[in-house]
Design goal:
Helix content: 40-55%
Strand order of the largest sheet: 3-2-1-9
CATH architecture: Alpha-Beta Barrel
Number of helices: 10
Number of domains: 1
Order of helices and strands: HEHEHEHEHEEHEHEHEHH
Structural class: alpha/beta
Number of strands: 9
Radius of gyration: 16 Å
CATH superfamily: Aldolase class I
CATH topology: TIM Barrel
């Protein structure tokens, strides 16, 4: 069985691949491959397809099979079944908005690395007790912004975050400057109108700008 420490090593490497992890919601799985290629071309290789649509797992399967340079994962994972389905679809990591006991128990026995979400010091500590030294901070902006993670950095030293939720191109750098932030999650690199129109050149341009933040 893959140890929690090994999973954290994988997550740390994944989080440090690029400064921004695109958080993607796809309505049509056929858009996933050109979308992924456009993002990778711009320098964003780590892609999070959220399980908010029926197309998500098919999107992961397609990208895992057809875009070898992409590091594809799933987001909004809330149940053990979704964790298992993510791995079966080809995801190499999973992200959750929180960390329920049932999900964390399942993740402990599953090889797929899980990045669970936390927003309070108590939640961060509870996850750390289970071995999660890499966590998602969500919802980042609504929870108080960069000042919260700055305050966490000393008393919760050793925990590294991927803040997600409400972060934009013009605010990402402030988050990335924090010592306990490895990357940020953001949807601005794949605007809905650009995806709907198949404007992959625009997606690549936004990705290049995001990749340059690192």
């Amino acid at each position: 069985m893959t140890s929690m420490a090994d999973k954290m090593v994988v997550l740390d490497r994944t989080m440090r691949t690029a400064p921004v992890i695109p958080v993607l919601v796809v309505a049509d799985w056929k858009q996933a491959v050109p979308l992924a290629r456009a993002l990778v071309a711009g320098g964003l290789r780590v892609l999070e397809f959220t399980l908010r649509t029926d197309a998500a797992l098919d999107a992961v399967r397609a990208v895992a099979a057809e875009v070898p340079d992409a590091i594809v994962g799933t987001g909004t994972v809330r149940s053990p079944d979704q964790l298992v389905a993510s791995a079966e679809a080809g995801a190499v990591f999973a992200v959750s908005p929180g960390g329920s006991p049932r999900l964390l128990d399942a993740a402990a026995d599953h090889p797929l690395p899980l990045l669970p979400g936390a927003v309070t010091a108590s939640e961060v500590m509870a996850l750390e007790e289970r071995g999660y030294t890499r966590q998602k901070f969500f919802p980042a902006v609504a929870a108080g912004g960069p000042g919260v993670l700055k305050a966490f950095s000393s008393p919760l030293a050793g925990v590294v975050f991927c803040p997600t939720g409400g972060i934009r191109a013009h605010t990402a750098a402030e988050w990335l400057a924090l010592p306990n932030v490895a990357c940020v999650g953001g949807s601005w690199v794949a605007p809905k109108d650009a995806v709907a129109a198949g404007d992959w050149a625009r997606v690549t341009a936004l990705s290049k700008a995001a990749a340059a933040l690192g």
